Amino acid sequence: MRFRSVAVMALLTLLASPAFAQRDDIKACWIYIGPVGDFGYSYAQDLGRQQTAADIPGLETAYVEAVAEADVEATVDQLVADGCNVIFGTSFGFGDGLLAAAERYPDVIFGHATGVERAPNVLTYMADFYQVYYVNGLIAGALTETDTVGYVAAFPIPEVKRHINAFARGVQEVNPDAKVVVRWIYAWFDPAAAREATEALIADGADVFAYTEDTPTVPQTAAARGLVSFSHYADMSQYAPDTLASGQLVHWGVLTTDIIRKIMDGTYTADNLDDVDYFWLMAEGAVEVGVAPGQVIHPNYEQQLKDTTVQSEEFGEISVYDLVMRRIEQLSADPVGFEPFAGPLTDRKGNQVYAEGEGPTLLDLLGMQWAAPNVEGPWEGEP
């Protein structure tokens, strides 16, 4: 009996330790850079919030939309006053405000989506598209008839450069003659600027379009001319029902559900997040290739991709359609079976980026500044 009593006491002590503590006092709140009605980035972030709320019954959530970078600290103040003790800031530009607020609220846990700087109570997380953009590039390279692919980009930061380069690598793999022409709009949410950039690219001869900004303007503008484009962050079929070839879809809820569950079970606390950095890809289910969930390629373009063949060192002669499906299988595997930036690789200035057998580290991906050989357009910070 004495042994059983000691064992029971030891078990109770273990269950009461921080590693087994179950928090039930969490109110999780999100700060969005744009309106949730943008049908792009902030819309996708809010779908993630809704998914996390569904995954964790009883979890209280709230959000504030269309927050300017200068207003982040004031927004945090209001959320903390409202009882929020887990706060997700969802824009790269929110970093300084979140870090400053984290110092003033050391008991609040912060998550910075797309961020790179952490603190004891600030983790970073990213559902990254670079693999998905590469696959979209395979499709774009096969569909362009002018060998000019347009790309409308928000800001020349490493995240966006990574996506452009991955897309360009896919284009080049199936169409060595094609170029990716970039126009920067220096805004995440500016429909007028996105429209102007798309129209300028059309005037320059582009007939296929990708982008990194937070509105459905590029697909809408391209669709008005009957030109091909890709969804970005969410299903945009309603804006271009016949001309979206594929796209990049995100599942932010996969990450935020994991984060909150780890806060609830005591794995994450307000003093151990310095090294917590999520960089989740296709294999983790954070991102997906498709026009809409479950639809990789629009039926309007399937036959053309099946009829277009390329010579692959790995697979021999293969249709672009089958190459897309093979790459998705490789990129979704654990361990991942293909790296879009694998060497040998040079940049557009002829500098070696990676030698044969080499590839990027996570730090390389997060700090990417070079431009792919088939990318045209201004490129701030180019080495």
Description of the structure:
- This protein has 383 residues and is of the alpha/beta class.
- The protein folds into 2 domains: 155 residues, Response regulator (Rossmann fold), CATH 3.40.50; 210 residues, Response regulator (Rossmann fold, 3-Layer(aba) Sandwich), CATH 3.40.50.
- It contains 12 helices and 17 strands.
- The strands form 4 sheets. A 7-stranded mixed β-sheet has the order 12-10-9-8-6-7-17, with helices on both faces.
- The N terminus is likely disordered.
Considering the chains and any ligands shown, give keywords for the structure:
383 residues, alpha/beta, Rossmann fold, 7-stranded mixed β-sheet, 6-stranded parallel β-sheet, 12 helices, globular
Give the helices and strands, then pairings:
Blueprint: H1 2-15, E1 27-31, H2 41-55, E2 60-64, H3 72-81, E3 86-89, H4 95-104, E4 109-113, E5 122-127, H5 130-143, E6 148-153, H6 158-174, E7 179-184, H7 191-203, E8 208-212, H8 217-223, E9 228-233, E10 244-250, H9 252-264, E11 277-280, E12 287-289, H10 299-307, E13 309-312, E14 316-319, H11 320-331, E15 345-346, E16 352-354, H12 362-366, E17 375-376
Parallel strand pairs: 1-2, 1-3, 3-4, 4-5, 5-11, 6-7, 6-8, 7-17, 8-9, 9-10
Antiparallel strand pairs: 10-12, 13-14, 15-16
Helix pairs in contact: 2-9, 3-4, 5-6, 5-11, 7-8
